[in-house]
Specification:
The complex is a heterodimer of chains A (479) and B (447).
Chain A (H helix, E strand, L loop, with lengths): L1 H13 L4 E17 L2 E19 L2 E7 L4 H17 L17 E5 L11 H17 L4 E17 L4 E18 L4 E6 L5 E3 L4 H6 L1 H15 L3 E2 L3 E8 L1 H13 L4 H4 L29 E4 L20 E6 L2 E2 L6 H7 L7 E2 L8 E2 L4 E3 L6 H6 L3 E13 L5 E13 L2 E7 L2 E5 H6 L1 E4 L6 E10 L4 E9 L2 E8 L4
Parallel strand pairs in A: 4-6, 9-19, 10-17
Antiparallel strand pairs in A: 1-2, 1-5, 2-3, 5-6, 6-7, 6-8, 10-24, 11-12, 11-16, 12-13, 14-15, 17-18, 18-19, 18-20, 20-24, 21-24, 22-23
Helix pairs in contact in A: 1-2, 3-5
Chain B lengths: L4 H15 L4 E17 L2 E19 L2 E8 L4 H16 L24 H4 L3 H14 L4 E17 L4 E16 L4 E8 L7 H14 L9 E7 L1 H16 L1 H5 L18 E3 L21 E5 L2 E2 L6 H7 L21 E3 L6 H6 L3 E15 L4 E14 L2 E5 L4 E5 H4 L5 E12 L5 E16 L4
Parallel strand pairs in B: 7-12
Antiparallel strand pairs in B: 1-2, 1-4, 2-3, 4-5, 5-6, 7-17, 8-9, 8-11, 9-10, 12-13, 13-14, 13-15, 15-17, 16-17
Helix pairs in contact in B: 1-2, 4-5
């Protein structure tokens, strides 16, 4: 494949690019979904092509073709440069790239059980079985599904990068919905987005969907008659690790994307409340808050060997002792910001330009446990499993909802609560963090559906998380 | 592309016939181009383009159904591999008791949403419009994108249905920024030539300047004038969780046909052949998309269906299946909300005390049945008092039932001016601004 990537890069340089890189990607995916005891869809996908990125002056030009013939690769390279040149009609300051030694290497993640080696019959039996079990235990609508991706990519750059990678990702989800007189209640397992990782089918087996199907169906039914989460201006809030993954993703992960901070996403995804002049001094949260972006975590969904412009995966400190110390970056944004290349640039296919993406952005664990947090709380609410998420375009003002909650009184879990929501402002909220779960509860949650960019790209991100307690949080916002 | 889209579709059907003569098969083939020029900090920073060659094959073998999509050169080797993959999948699947069968032979409308110049648009054509936008902003910082697309789509199934369509679409969508405020403007059309970058830039800059130095406003219930992007957002949630045949089938929808669920001022059609709309005249199952009413004078009149949801409901598909949307159900793609008789400026003039909202942002459903949604305002909010803009205010969070906002007695006016707003799943909504009696703002920028 490197004959193609090299030809494409050479064509871009010949057409006037000052820098160029080319990626061949071959992606195959498989998704199965069952509803109410019947497998309703089995979708497979194959995508293959080459995308070329060419730099001229202040702009990237990018051109992709769904074709792996040598002539197509050269055409893509030439067109990428032509597209970049058209941008000079509305120019800015010349773009520079933070230095990265040219890399030559191969990388693949560990897979114990290839998802494609598991028969469709077994997969179908699993999904149909768990949906039937949920129906049997009180669900009106029972859904389950899995997704698997097998991605091979080859990268070459005009600086000498020659990299190939093979990444297998896999995971599953299920949910039970109970329909009441005037509302519906849903419980998901293991979370609203399921659980995904750079792993094989062994991840799906470890989830034990059959063992959890009856419970979530019964919980969905029970929520219909539960009391509503009270509206309180301030209470102690304990969040389960799945909800913490969402909290991290939305109010840390996106906020520390350097392209947002630099205004490159201002019109669409938005900007950030963070100001680069405050890097190293801004208090993001309480002193027990430590966050890293680490693409080297084995099995996590945001792991890889090299990002899509060839920077080797490495951990990046984002928040240390509550202070903001780092950002997610690519070579162009890093150069502009005066920081080292963060290795956080990826594209979701051959036909999309690589952009800043979360790797595995997560909290480092503390020394508490969920049960210890509950015991230490006199008056509060424990919420778990994300249900809704909304945050402003600067990643500051958020309102998140969970599927289920429990009142906490005098250190004990009490009555069930439905429709729990909480709201806050990012640094104030993180400043209220006072208890962190330990390494035993550290879970590498995977988010397989993060939308960003124009044209939209769907990113796969990881979020190591533990249960956490926050003091004095507003809960129970209603319409 | 090796052969035309229609040729490729026929070759796939022939490959299926040669391997499994009794299989039911349908094929959708799309070819074309998609290009987008992005600007930020007032210069073009990303400029992307791609050639598109995409096909989707669905096969049912004795009621056992599987689907494969493929991006790449449709040579015989690739097509054979795709067909083999789908057939292999169907052979190990249990029968689907709800398989509705293939779309029957039917004529499909040709909406004519095509423009040769847009299909041949160059990076320079898009850059030219971006330059106009940036210059018209008069020194304010700008960001946004100009996109042009052209797609030819062919459908064929083994029941004899054949359909072909082509469509172009273009839009420019950008903001101007003052440091304390953003203002937005967007234009969507079949024709790139309709995109006046200068007019869009001027509008965005005017909004940004008018919104500069906003101040806080106490949360609470306010009258609102919602501009078209907000109105399109309202419709999206009504569609996803209400008019969607799947949501109705499962009891999750609020829709009750024949009931006065909305204000009498609301008449909503699904109309792919409206001359201001975009897109083609059939869905991914090959079913024609014909115009019909969803709401007439506030009375719920219809819902949208795929073949699967229609079979469950005992009705006909309306042609609203989307690729990969089996779990999602059916979605309107070309909604048209009837306009009112007063200008947007006149609607603002009739507000006692309320808010003018440019855009909604990051809206998420809290309860599908009651349509309670939370989200934020973006790109300009103003307090209106006694029919006049009093001052810009900072963005607000709302938690509001969309159904309640449009309930009988809640709609105080619709603008006579409509805009086409691009939405999710390839949809575009032709909608006016709305003047609503009450909107529940639940928080400000400070929480």
């Amino acid at each position: 494949m490197h004959d193609l990537t090299t030809a494409a890069v050479e064509a871009a340089l010949a057409a006037g690019a000052t820098y160029a890189d080319a990626r061949v990607m071959e992606i195959r995916s498989e998704a199965m979904a069952a509803r109410n005891g019947v497998v309703e869809s089995l979708d497979r996908e194959e995508r293959a092509g080459i995308g070329v990125r060419a730099l001229i002056g202040s702009s990237w030009g990018f051109f992709a073709v769904p074709d792996l013939a040598p002539a197509a690769a050269r055409r893509a390279g030439e067109q990428a440069a032509n597209v970049a040149r058209a941008s000079t009609r509305v120019p800015g300051k010349d773009l520079e790239l933070a230095p990265v030694d040219p890399q030559q290497g191969s990388w693949a993640n560990d897979v114990r059980e290839d998802p494609w080696s598991v028969s469709l019959a077994e997969k179908g039996d699993l999904l149909e079985g768990v949906t039937r079990a949920m129906l049997d235990h009180g669900a009106d609508v029972a859904e389950a599904g899995f997704n698997a991706w097998d991605t091979r990519k080859w990268l070459a750059s005009s600086e000498g990068h020659r990299i190939d990678q093979h990444i297998v990702e896999c995971g599953a989800e299920m949910s039970a919905t109970a329909v009441g007189e005037a509302e519906t209640q849903r419980r998901s397992y293991p979370g609203i987005r399921g659980q995904y990782g750079t792993r094989g089918w062994e991840l799906v087996r470890e989830l034990d969907l059959p063992g959890n199907a009856p419970r979530i169906a019964e919980e969905a039914r029970a929520l219909l008659t539960a009391d509503a989460c009270p509206s309180l201006d301030a209470t102690d809030l304990i969040l389960g690790s799945e909800q913490m993954a969402l909290q991290i993703h939305e109010s840390i992960g996106h906020a520390v994307e350097l392209d947002r901070i630099l205004g490159w996403e201002a019109a669409f995804a938005g900007t950030s409340w963070l100001d680069l002049r405050q890097l190293g001094t801004l208090r993001y949260g309480s002193e027990i808050m430590n966050v890293t972006a680490d693409a080297t975590l084995p099995g996590a969904l945001g792991s890889f060997g090299y990002d899509d412009e060839g920077t080797p995966a490495h951990p990046v400190d984002i928040v240390r002792g509550g202070l903001w110390v780092g950002a997610l970056s690519g070579r162009d944004s890093a150069a502009l910001a005066g920081v080292e290349a963060g290795g956080a640039v990826r594209a979701d296919g051959y036909n999309r330009i690589p952009m800043v993406r979360m790797t595995n952005v997560g909290l480092l664990p503390g020394d508490s446990t969920l049960e210890a947090m509950i015991e230490a709380t006199d008056d509060g609410i424990f919420m778990d499993t994300n249900r809704s998420w909304s945050i402003d375009d600067r990643r500051l003002n958020f309102q998140f909802g969970c599927e289920i909650g429990w009142e906490i009184k005098n250190g004990k879990r009490g009555r069930l609560l439905k429709n729990p929501t909480y709201t806050g402002i990012s640094p104030t909220f993180w400043g209220a963090l006072d208890m962190l779960g330990s390494g035993d509860e550290w879970t590498f949650w995977g988010t397989p559906n993060c939308g960003k960019g124009q044209p939209i790209q769907i990113g796969h991100t990881g979020h190591p998380a533990v249960p956490c307690r926050f003091r004095g949080i507003r809960v129970g916002v209603r319409g | 592309m090796t052969g035309s889209a229609a040729d490729v579709a026929e070759r796939v059907l022939e490959l299926v016939r040669s391997r499994a003569a009794d299989a039911e098969a349908e094929v959708t083939v799309g070819t074309g181009s998609d290009a987008l020029t992005r600007f930020a900090n007032s210069f073009i920073h990303q400029n992307v383009a791609e050639e598109v060659s995409h096909l989707v094959v669905r096969i049912a073998l004795d009621g056992r159904v599987a689907t494969t999509s493929f991006d790449g050169p449709p040579d015989n080797e690739a097509l054979g591999r795709v067909v083999d993959s789908v057939l292999a999948a169907t052979r190990v699947r249990p029968p689907d008791p709800d398989w509705p069968g293939l779309a029957p032979v039917a004529d499909v409308p040709d909406p004519g949403h095509w423009d040769d110049a847009t299909a041949g648009a160059t990076p320079d054509d898009r850059a030219h419009r971006v330059a106009d936008f940036v210059v018209a902003a008069g020194g304010l910082e700008t960001a946004g994108a100009c996109q042009s697309q052209a797609m030819t789509t062919a459908f064929a199934n083994s029941a004899g249905q054949r359909a072909a369509g082509r469509s172009t679409a273009a839009d420019i969508d950008g903001i101007a920024r003052t440091g304390t405020s953003d203002g937005s403007a967007r234009i969507t059309s079949v024709r790139l030539g309709d995109l006046d970058g200068r007019a869009a830039g001027e509008r965005a800059a005017r909004k940004a300047r008018d919104g500069a130095d906003p101040t806080d406003l106490a949360p609470g219930r306010y009258e609102v004038v919602l501009e078209p992007q907000c109105v399109a957002d309202l419709l999206l949630f009504l569609f996803l969780y209400g008019f969607n045949g799947r949501a109705i089938e499962e009891g999750r929808s609020f829709v009750r046909l024949g009931e006065q669920q909305f204000d009498p001022a609301i008449t909503l059609r699904e109309d792919p052949v409206d001359p201001h709309q975009v897109g083609i005249g059939f869905d991914v199952e090959g079913t024609p998309k014909l115009p019909f009413e969803l709401i007439r004078s506030g009375v719920t009149r219809g819902a949208v269906h795929t073949r699967r949801t229609a079979a469950k409901a005992g009705t006909e598909s309306t042609g609203h299946a989307v690729e990969g949307g089996e779990g999602l159900g059916a979605l309107p793609t070309n909604p048209v909300l009837d306009a009112g008789e007063r200008s947007t400026q006149e609607l603002i003039g009739s507000v006692d005390r309320g808010l003018l909202v440019t855009d909604f942002w990051y809206t998420r459903i809290l309860d599908p049945r009651t349509q309670v949604v939370t989200g934020l305002t973006r790109n300009g909010v103003w307090l209106v008092e006694d029919g006049r803009i009093a001052r810009p205010v900072r963005n607000l969070r709302f938690t509001q039932s969309y159904l309640e906002a449009l309930a009988p007695g809640s709609v105080l006016g619709l603008s006579s001016e409509r805009s086409l707003v691009s939405g999710g799943f390839g949809s575009a909504s032709l909608v006016p601004a709305l003047h609503l009696a009450s909107w529940n703002f639940t928080g400000g920028a400070k929480g």
